[in-house]
Design a protein that fits this description.
- By secondary structure, the chain is of the alpha/beta class.
- The chain has a single domain, classed as Glycerol-3-phosphate (1)-acyltransferase (3-Layer(aba) Sandwich).
- It is built from nine helices and eight strands.
- Strands 1, 2, 3, 4, 5, 6, 7 and 8 form an eight-stranded mixed sheet that branches.
- Helix 4 links the parallel strand 3 and strand 4.
- The chain is globular and about 60 Å long.
């Protein structure tokens, strides 16, 4: 019997992926993110400079045009396209725009389509840079927890603005949501449209996914999501879209509760049809 010499087993060569190498797609996404962040910063700085140095010399109409252009630049910097449907509000008359609230981008979308004044929660005034810009754009700040009595002076101010021919946009849910449903409306400011004798224009804000379904989870700014986290989620997408669907104007009724329920039903039905 012949004994075979012992042979050392061959070492099996294994190839582990090089974790230090990144695909071109990863690098493209990082460059896109950085570029958009720089564009947003540039828009904010330009907006502050324009409002500080040039707004005092602008006419009211020129101010609205500047706000519209600036809002469109912010949307473009985020990689977001604005699409409008229906008949936009008419110029030269007082009117109240009522919309659902999903993101900080809602304000940019509405201003990009038809600039005007806004009623916003008082927290917005404290946001870095954006709060300053909103204040200079004559935003009316309200406290969500003080009701009609606590905001009576501001409600009267909105009524006066409507009588003077301003367009005032309100998000009567009182907070932002994921966008799957519209929360019940707080009726306080619906009274101002009746007192001023101006029409109410319901407008549905929608952020569709690439396949047309809604909502886009990257665009919602709600709950515990910080403003910085929201910005990062938005600009990390290859591209995105915000839709504004303008419904036919309606007459404000004397009963603000009934008017709020009516507008809520119109917007909810529109959202349901779109999916």
């Amino acid at each position: 019997m012949q004994i075979q010499p012992f042979r050392r087993p061959e070492t099996i060569q294994t190839h582990t992926p090089d974790t230090h190498k990144h695909s071109p797609f990863d690098m493209t996404a990082k460059l896109r993110f950085a570029f958009r962040l720089l564009c947003i910063a540039g828009c904010l700085l330009y907006g502050m400079a324009e409002m500080f140095f040039l707004f005092p010399f602008y006419s009211s109409k020129r101010k609205l045009r500047a706000i519209q252009l600036w809002s469109l630049r912010v949307l473009a910097s985020c990689g977001m396209k604005l699409q409008t449907f229906g008949t936009p509000p008419q110029e030269g008359r007082g009117q109240m725009l009522i919309s659902n609230h999903i993101s900080w981008l809602d304000i940019m979308a509405v201003n990009g389509a038809f600039p005007g004044r806004f009623v916003a929660k008082d927290d917005v005034a404290k946001w870095p840079v954006v709060g300053y810009l909103a204040t200079q754009a004559q935003t009316v700040y309200v406290s969500r927890n003080r009701g009609i009595k606590g905001n009576s002076a501001k409600i009267a101010g909105v009524t006066e603005a409507l009588k003077n021919g301003d367009t005032v946009t309100i998000f009567p849910e009182g907070t932002s949501t994921e966008g799957r449903e519209i929360l019940p409306f707080k009726p306080s400011f619906f009274q101002t449209a009746y007192d001023a004798g101006v029409p109410i224009i319901p407008a549905l804000c929608r952020y569709p996914n690439p396949d047309g379904s809604s909502p886009n989870p990257h665009t919602a700014y709600y709950g515990d999501i910080s403003l910085w986290q929201s910005i990062c989620m938005v600009i990390s997408q290859p591209s995105s879209t915000v839709e504004l669907h303008f419904l036919d104007p309606i007459e404000a009724g004397e009963d603000r509760y009934a008017t709020a329920l009516h507008v809520h039903a119109l917007l909810s039905e529109k959202q349901k049809r779109l999916g």
